[in-house]
Amino acid sequence: MALLLRESDVERLLDIPTALEAVEEVLRQHGEGRAPNQPRRRVFVPSGVLHVMAGGMPAWGVMGLKTYSAVAGKARFVVLLFSTETGDLRGIIEADRLGQIRTGAASGVATKYLARAEASIVGIFGTGRQARTQLQAVCTVRPIREVRAYSRDAERRQRFCLDMEKLLGCGVRPVAAPVDVVKGADIVITITSSREPVFDGHLVEPGQHLNVAGSNMAQKREVDDETIRRADRIVVDQLEDAQIESGDLMAPVARGLTAWGRMHELGAVVCGKAPGRQRAEEVTLFKSNGLAIQDVAVAYKVLERARAVGLGAEVPLCA
Q1: Residue 127: burial class (beta carbons within 10 Å; 0-12, 13-18, 19+)
Q2: pTM for this entry
Q3: What average pLDDT does the segment 54-60 reach?
Q4: Where are the alpha helices (DSSP H) in the chain?
Q5: Is the dihedral of CA 226, 232, 237, 238 positive or negative?
Q6: What is the model's pLDDT at position 319?
Q7: Stretch 224-250: mean pLDDT, rounded?
Q8: Are 266 and 286 in contact (CB under 8 A)?
Q9: Of 241, 243, 240, 222, which is closest to residue 285 (Cα–Cα)?
């Protein structure tokens, strides 16, 4: 029987280190050609959108999909896990919190392989729910001592900084302008819903690493052409997917400012087939869209942990 896990179960069972471990391992398998992934597909209806993405980890005996609806301003997420050996449905997992943590973990893995080892100052654009796990993951893989946060709502960014300072145990302060986020930062994170670039690329400094994680649609951009021009190394989670929904890259490629052939997949970097950071002064950029296999890997960890501790409800489906 399938095990049904609610959001409250995921909240109890999943933490950032577990998600980092799962995402890094599935990316390694993806880089080695052992974890197939299908890019996200969208079905548009008058009232909203249905998103579907699928992938598998045969080495862990699991395959599955994440699907989510976005209707009337509300999104509803679920992951379905199947056995690669029997085809049985193994898990039905509510996946809002799971996706939030997984998105942060992807940036954490990219930071581990691309940011300078001594990176200690983070600048972040965005102070929503996703921003929290971005910072948690980056602070797990690097010795961060200072965070600077910017969003358009001054009251919201003040609350965010107070909450995150308690959670992270390092200084987190609000700043009033984009220049204050980027200038002197070792790592810059964009995790917004913006359709337009959130800072001037002329601010980018040698040695910085950028996690561009807010948009996964062709019509949206968080970074401008100058940022792409200054990036010495651009890494994506999947090239096929990036060519469909990375607005941050599609427009610059179309204008000849960069090329898909210059970019590498994060899985190839993780497994050693492609280079990570080569020089301290390089500008590295990770464009994150999110892959189904990342959700599958994290959901698998949650499901195994739930069975070990007796959480969840058995559902007699697809036996």
Answers
A1: buried
A2: 0.96
A3: 98
A4: 7-13, 16-31, 96-114, 129-141, 154-168, 178-182, 225-230, 239-245, 247-254, 266-270, 292-309
A5: positive
A6: 61
A7: 97
A8: yes
A9: 222
Is 170 buried (19+), middle (13-18) or exposed (0-12) by CB count in 10 A? middle
* Residue that the structure tokens 């021009």 belong to: 229
What is the DSSP secondary structure assignment for residue 14, as one 8-state letter?
-
Question: Per the structure block, which two tokens stand in for 178?
Answer: 């984009």
Per residue in 43-55, pLDDT (tens digit) is 999 999 999 999 9
The Cα 270–Cα 273 span in angstroms is 8
State residue 30's pLDDT score: 98
DSSP letter (8 states) at residue 170: S
Q: CA dist 311 to 11, 79, 215, 297, Å?
A: 12, 17, 34, 19
Running DSSP on this structure, what letter comes out for residue 281? T
Strand order in the sheet with 209-212: 171-174, 146-150, 121-125, 187-190, 209-212, 284-287, 233-236, 264-265
Q: Tell me the mean pLDDT in the region 178-195.
A: 97
Exposed (0-12), middle (13-18) or buried (19+): which is 250, by Cβ within 10 Å? middle
H-run or E-run covering 71: strand 62-71
* Residue 310, number of CB atoms within 10 A of its CB: 6
Q: How far from chain centre, in Å, is Cα 144?
A: 19
Q: Would the CA dihedral through 271, 39, 103, 238 be positive or negative?
A: positive
